[in-house]
Amino acid sequence: MKTAGKLPTINYQRSTNRRFVWRIVDFAVAGIFIYAGALKAFDPVQFANDIDNYKMLPWPVSVALAFYLPWLEIFCALGLVFRFLYRGALLILSASIVVFTLATIAAKLRGLDITCGCFGHASQNWSFPAHLVTNLAILAGLLALSFKATSGNRLQMRSNFS
Amino acid sequence: MKSSLVGQAVILAALALLPAAGEAIYFRDKISWRSAIAPSEMVTVEQARESGDTAIWVDARPDEDFAKDHVPGAISLNEDRWNELLPQFLAVWTPGKKIVVYCSSLSCNASREVAHRLRKEAQLSDVFVLEGGWEAWLKKKR
């Protein structure tokens, strides 16, 4: 009976620790996207050329994306930090990293020696495997956060129901 | 925020449009929506002609097109035979000369690629791309 009184405190402590760890993951992923977005937002001309190097889109579309995508990344990252439109932000960031990874693989298969432009000038000398590993690591983080958000919602719905 | 997943994504996508539009206005002179070449790296046919003998014309089109017709005095330098043609071009080039690269039309990429390689690999400055390419030159010739 003595330990029975301590259990809720221990569970509460574990739950707080877990929440803290998930918030760190939130901040880490958001930090990567804010950094990447800011680099590209400062140099949209370079980013338009990077998109154009994939040889998949007409030039005016590359220019439009060069202006738009960095801000989309920044807004979504801020969504993760402030937990505002959180699941929508995760959806967009996951979709964008999947599209960039597939485009990088397609470009490699077509024999194009390109920079992905993901981190502006910082990623210019990255090798293809380095791009791939970085993108997959970020995607893993995003998927983990999505899973956490979905399971968290389910638990809340269950507790509301009971 | 209780809105649906797609609803949240749409709101974020719409929010990002605002700064993107502002940035597009801010950078309007630094990037062209029509061509990947910066306005400062382009010359019109008239500007290139004004340079007279101080300009070297570089034809970035394939060999067959160059053989059919080309700008008088132009030197062929295309990416297909880059390693072979570059030394021939460098033999003619002298410091201080303006290099005007052209390909077939406004939509071709060859002149942009050749100009980029001349700047990067041959370390040459004063390299310009002819706006409208060979088509524009033909029109102005008439």
Question: What would your notes on this structure say?
Answer:
The complex is a heterodimer of chains A (162) and B (142). Chain A has 162 residues and is mainly α. Chain A has helices spanning 7-42, 44-52, 59-82, 86-109, 128-161. In chain A, helix 1 (7-42) packs antiparallel against helix 3 and helix 1 crosses helix 5. In chain A, 31% of the residues are buried. Chain B has 142 residues and is of the alpha/beta class. Chain B has 2 domains: 1-30; 39-141, Oxidized Rhodanese, domain 1 (3-Layer(aba) Sandwich), CATH 3.40.250. Chain B is built from 6 helices and 5 strands, in the order H-E-H-E-H-E-H-E-H-E-H. Chain B has helices spanning 5-26, 45-50, 63-68, 82-92, 110-120, 133-141; strands at 42-43, 55-59, 75-76, 98-102, 127-130. The model of chain B has no long low-confidence stretch (mean pLDDT 89). Classes of the chains: A mainly alpha (162), B alpha/beta (142). The A-B interface holds A 41, 44-45, 48-49, 52, 59-60, 62-64, 66-68, 71-72, 74-76, 79, 84-89, 91-92 and B 1, 3, 5-13, 15-17, 19-21, 23-24, 27, 30-31, 33-36, 38.
Helix and strand arrangement:
The complex is a heterodimer of chains A (162) and B (142).
Chain A (H helix, E strand, L loop, with lengths): L6 H36 L1 H9 L6 H24 L3 H24 L18 H34 L1
Helix pairs in contact in A: 1-3, 1-5, 2-3, 3-4, 4-5
Chain B lengths: L4 H22 L15 E2 L1 H6 L4 E5 L3 H6 L6 E2 L5 H11 L5 E5 L7 H11 L6 E4 L2 H9 L1
Parallel strand pairs in B: 1-5, 2-3, 2-4, 4-5
Concise overview:
The complex is a heterodimer of chains A (162) and B (142). Chain A is an all-alpha fold and 162 residues long.
